[in-house]
Amino acid sequence: MAASRSKAKAAETEAAPAAETKRDAAATRERILVAATQEFADKGYDGARVDEIIRVSQVNKNSLYHYFGSKEQLFTAVLERVYENIRARQSDLSIRSMSPEEGMRTLVEFTARIWEEVPEYNRLLASENLHEARHVRQSERIVPMYNPLLATICELLKRGEEAGVFRGGIDPVDLYISITALSAHYISHRHTFEAIFKTELMTPARLEQRRRHAADMILRYLKA
Q: Does the pLDDT value for residue 21 go beyond 90?
């Protein structure tokens, strides 16, 4: 009996460090991703330095390569995290339950808020475009994230056409590219626009005006 209790206690003692190690591993991986997101956003893929990511995340080089394998795989993981956050913010299910016009307006405004609230996402995607989406193509996770979004847009377009509020023949991919362009371009080029037009573009009132402007443009384009 005593031997059984001793074995059980030993098993508990071994399990505790294992659980702690798992929590530590998740925390370490998160620290690396946070540091890498900022480094890649600030300097682009080519300019980013793994040593700086290691310094900021306070891990050793072996740990970084254990979790991510290489700088390229780390950048892919950062992009996957970015796209996951973008898709989470766009909230397909709540949009799909709205009327076609309300749902489309909400999608435009949600998308605009992403670039406003997390401008580093725009810089990361700009860097990836310089590499012709090499890392996106390598990911098995990013492309499937957008299938539900396209399905939602198609559903809104179909219901809008049936209700007589949207015209037919709208390409959902073209539409989403336009939605993104109307908001992302505003944020990514704000510094030059502000310098040229001597206008502050990032005040709450200005951002709200831009969101309404973008949504109005999309809805007028869709109008039957």
A: no
| Domain range 1-69, CATH architecture | Orthogonal Bundle (1.10)
CATH classification (class only), 80-224 = mainly alpha
pLDDT (mean) for 36-41: 96
Q: Judge whether 1-69 and 80-224 match in fold.
A: yes
Cα–Cα distance measured from residue 147 to residue 73, given in angstroms and rounded to the nearest whole number: 23
**What distance in Å separates the CA atoms of residue 214 and residue 156, rounded to the nearest whole number?**
18
* Alpha carbon distance 13, 126 (integer Å): 49
pLDDT tier at 86, thresholds 50, 70, 90: confident
Q: What is the pLDDT of residues 48-81, one digit of tens each?
A: 999 999 999 999 999 999 999 999 999 999 999 9
Tell me, what's the pLDDT at 96?
Answer: 85
